[in-house]
């Protein structure tokens, strides 16, 4: 019985998020603004502006007032709900979209090289996906073609030796 209750709440939450996302995207469309323009109004990257509207990022109080000004058609209840901690998940069907599939493919094909270069330049560690700026833009190629540029600017997080004396909360041992 409890499981059905949890599943029901998650389904209701998913539907509520989808409805809110539709309202937010409709307000953006009505404004005629691009994600680049919205990002400029908010002082964020274009990707973060999109994440806000899609429910993938938390709206801060400082940015909420800017968003209300940039998209005056927004409802105050939607703005309040955007200030709660989001459920940062994704629809697995997103990878059926050619853009998403190709991005995943590009990262997967280059992941080992990227890892080796990060390790060579920074040491043993990883790039944070939490403390990361993501921006998307275009440039002109050598033959005048449009080229897509995806910039991931992430904080380097070194792996540490797990020394017992540094563990401020050791696990209980019997």
From TrEMBL:
<feature type="domain" description="Cyanate lyase C-terminal">
    <location>
        <begin position="89"/>
        <end position="162"/>
    </location>
</feature>
<dbReference type="InterPro" id="IPR008076">
    <property type="entry name" value="Cyanase"/>
</dbReference>
<dbReference type="InterPro" id="IPR010982">
    <property type="entry name" value="Lambda_DNA-bd_dom_sf"/>
</dbReference>
<keyword id="KW-0456">Lyase</keyword>
<feature type="active site">
    <location>
        <position position="128"/>
    </location>
</feature>
<protein>
    <recommendedName>
        <fullName>Cyanate hydratase</fullName>
        <ecNumber>4.2.1.104</ecNumber>
    </recommendedName>
</protein>
<dbReference type="GO" id="GO:0003677">
    <property type="term" value="F:DNA binding"/>
</dbReference>
<dbReference type="InterPro" id="IPR036581">
    <property type="entry name" value="Cyanate_lyase_C_sf"/>
</dbReference>
<dbReference type="InterPro" id="IPR003712">
    <property type="entry name" value="Cyanate_lyase_C"/>
</dbReference>
<feature type="active site">
    <location>
        <position position="105"/>
    </location>
</feature>
<feature type="active site">
    <location>
        <position position="102"/>
    </location>
</feature>
<dbReference type="Pfam" id="PF02560">
    <property type="entry name" value="Cyanate_lyase"/>
</dbReference>
<dbReference type="InterPro" id="IPR048564">
    <property type="entry name" value="CYNS_N"/>
</dbReference>
<dbReference type="Pfam" id="PF21291">
    <property type="entry name" value="CYNS_N"/>
</dbReference>
<comment type="function">
    <text>Catalyzes the reaction of cyanate with bicarbonate to produce ammonia and carbon dioxide.</text>
</comment>
<comment type="similarity">
    <text>Belongs to the cyanase family.</text>
</comment>
<dbReference type="GO" id="GO:0008824">
    <property type="term" value="F:cyanate hydratase activity"/>
</dbReference>
